[in-house]
Each structure stands twice: as C-alpha cells, then as structure tokens.
Amino acid sequence: MKTVISTDRAAAVELLRKGDVVALPTETVYGLAADALNPIAVAKIFEAKERPRFDPLIVHLPSREWLGRIANFPAGDRRLTLNLADKFWPGPFTIILSKREMVPDIVTAGLPTVAVRFSAHPVFAEIVGELDEPLAAPSANRFGHISPTTAQHVMDELQGRIPLIVDAGRTEHGIESTIVAVRDGRIAVLRRGPVADEQLSEFADVVGVAVTQRISAPGQMPSHYAPTTPLRLIDKAEEFFAQKNQRVGLLAWKSSGNAPASAERFAAVRNLSDRGELREAAAGLFRYLRELDALGLDLIVAERVPAYGLGAAIMDRLERASQR
Ligand code: TXA
Ligand code: MG
Known about the structure:
Elements: E1 4-6, H1 9-17, E2 22-24, E3 31-35, H2 39-49, E4 58-60, H3 67-70, E5 71-72, H4 78-88, E6 93-99, H5 105-108, E7 113-117, H6 122-131, E8 135-136, H7 151-158, E9 164-166, E10 178-183, E11 186-191, H8 197-200, E12 206-208, E13 231-234, E14 248-254, H9 259-265, E15 268-273, H10 278-293, E16 299-303, H11 310-321
The structure holds threonylcarbamoyladenylate and magnesium ion.
Magnesium ion is lined by residues 138-139, 147, 219.
C-alpha cells in the first residue's frame, strides 16, 4: 500500500467513511483513526500498529452530544465528571467512563469502560465533525514505540500500512493526553499529560497511580515509549562521565550556557528548552528522543526536569523510556 502525506481533509473523511484508517493530527500527538463504531475498521488500527488486542483505544467525540450516546456517567460522580469535561474539553484530556452498548468490544478490549476524549485540534475537529461518528484513535506509532509529533514521524512508523497521513505540522503539546477516572469523588490520574495534577486538584482530591503499578491498562506498562538506544536518567550533565569509546547523547533539560564543554563530551546534544520552559520541553521531547535514537549511540542520558506541572508528565515518559 502506498502511504500519502497530504492536507486533503475531504479524502480523509471519505476513507474513514468507507472503513479505512487514516493518521490525523491532534493537539497532543498524531493519532491513527478509524470509525469507532465499525469493528472491522478498528481491527485495521490494531493490525497497522501491531498492537495487542487487549490494549483498549481512546474514542474521540465529534461533538459533546455524542458523549451520552457512547458512555454512562458514574452516578455519584456525575457532577464532578461534568465539571472536568466542561473545563478541559475540547482539549488534551481523556476520561474513563462506563461504556454503552453501541461501542464495540474491540475498541475497549472487552472492558466495561471506554476512554473518551474531545480534541480541540482544528483539523481533527473538522474531520470528525464532518464524519459525525466517533473516531477510535491511538497514537500513530507501532506498539511500544515513541508517539509521533509530526506527519513524517508517522511515515517513519507506518509507511506502507496505511493510505493517508493528514499533515498539520508539529503537534502543540507533544505528549499524549492526560487520562483520568473519577471514583468516589476523587480523580485518579491513569496517565499524566498536558492537564497537570495541580489543575485537577482544583476540582477534587487527585490520586496518582505509581508508574510501576499502572498495569490496569497494558499500554501503561512501565517500558512503553522506549527508544531502541538504552536511556539513563541523570541529574546534571556536568556530573556524567562516559566510559572510554562510549558514544553518548545528551538530552538536556535546558541549555547549560556551556555548550562547547557539552559538545566535547557528548556525541550529540539536544536541549529540551533553552529557557527552561516545561511547555517547550514537552513539545520537543519525543522529537528529540527520535533524533537521538536515530544516531546509533551507545547510550542516551537525559537530565531530570522539575517534577511539577507538565514536568511530572515529562518525567513519566523519561522514566518509562529508561526502563527496558
Ligand atoms: O493524546 C492522546 O491521548 C492520543 C491522541 C491520538 O488522542 N492517543 C493516545 O492513545 O495516546 P493510546 O492508545 O496511544 O493511549 C491510550 C491509553 C492506552 O494506554 C490504553 O491502555 C488506555 O489509554 N486506555 C484506553 N481505554 C482504557 C480504559 N477503558 N481503561 C483504562 N485505560 C484505557
Ligand atoms: Mg500510544
């Protein structure tokens, strides 16, 4: 199959309507979308990604009206759930709800729950709105690989397996949506993302789920997001010394002001953010990991970033990338 990168939204709608898969931009990462109500179309997502069938997908709404058709609200937590939806939708935010009959089992991997998101990306919103059917869309990478933040990344991952990649440039946030479940008046964060714990805690108590325990859904296993090059976390680049003949790449938190020294000690250097901004760091994280991974290095060392706000979500990804 020939894979095309284009900006043709009408072609995307047509392919989706006839049960094909299409890679689409969202504000977080590129997704591989199919009509969520068509089990055969959804099966093509699993095939293209080589994703195990036991790993459930996120369903993206065409509009808020669709919410009540595909999911039920937790009775006691209805108000809190609606408040979260009102505040963070459309946006980089996913809520686990109990699923209604209409959602095929292949989408939820047989779970009684469904992950629901409502994307704010103008291109995604236009396509799903035009289709007027919910779209199942996981990140558009092969299973276990790093999520794509450009159309070219998707091409590198899925070339020959899908017909179309809709290009809208680099994604804004660069990391996947925050996933929450509301239980007994509390917000359980299943995956950290652009909506930070600090923002959620304005609504209710937030209970985090430790990385190693996060196996309630298989895609949240510790070793997801792994580059093929071993990755180690360090506090400061200055304190790291490579072994003789070892080619090491540095993923720095911010520019050290001592670029010549870094250039001498590392085979390659990428600064997540020159000014030390977490938003900028998140947006570039997966791209830099891909770039460093492509260099055939012996090791990537990544500096820890401050673990508050978006930094907690970045640290989650880095910790998982270091666990292989
Ligand atoms: O930003 C995002 O969320 C991107 C864009 C494309 O929307 N999508 C994304 O999907 O990251 P994916 O499939 O790569 O990650 C979804 C995660 C998986 O770890 C999956 O196991 C979990 O959500 N998940 C899906 N349904 C679930 C459910 N019913 N209960 C618990 N976890 C669920
Ligand atoms: Mg993924």
